[in-house]
Design goal:
The protein is mostly beta strands and 112 residues long. The protein contains one helix and seven strands; from the N terminus they run E-E-H-E-E-E-E-E. A five-stranded mixed β-sheet has the order 1-2-3-4-5, with helices on one face. The longest helix has 14 residues.
Length: 112
């Protein structure tokens, strides 16, 4: 995906709008949800990538915190970050505000 002239982060998973990407990378307007799976990259994903995604107004970002065995959901982006952060453990089902039909049980992909 391309967020700017020199900004092409590589999230672990991106859910994008349905269109032909043969001639261009997805841009911020195409991205519905980004997911970062974080083990050793947790600080980088939170401190570097997350603010970049917020400034690009990516509507929703999930960070799978493997060491903390939790999933963090970020919504309502702005230039200063995400206004809403929700953290859930493996005992809670998580529904996507951006994609209402997407619902996950973190127990399926968190260790332990």
């Amino acid at each position: 995906m391309q967020l700017g002239p020199r900004q092409e982060p590589q999230p672990d998973l991106a859910i994008v709008r349905d269109r032909d990407y043969g001639s261009s990378l997805p841009g911020p307007e195409d991205i519905l949800l980004l997911i970062e799976v974080s083990d050793t990259s947790l600080d980088y994903d939170r401190e570097i990538k997350l603010p970049l995604y917020a400034r690009a107004e990516i509507p929703e970002v999930w960070i799978v915190d493997l060491p903390g065995q939790a999933l963090e959901l970020y919504t309502e982006p702005s230039g200063s970050g995400y206004a809403v952060k929700r953290r859930v453990s493996k005992v809670t089902t998580l529904a996507s505000p951006t994609l209402p039909t997407l619902e996950l049980d973190p127990a399926g992909f968190l260790p332990g």
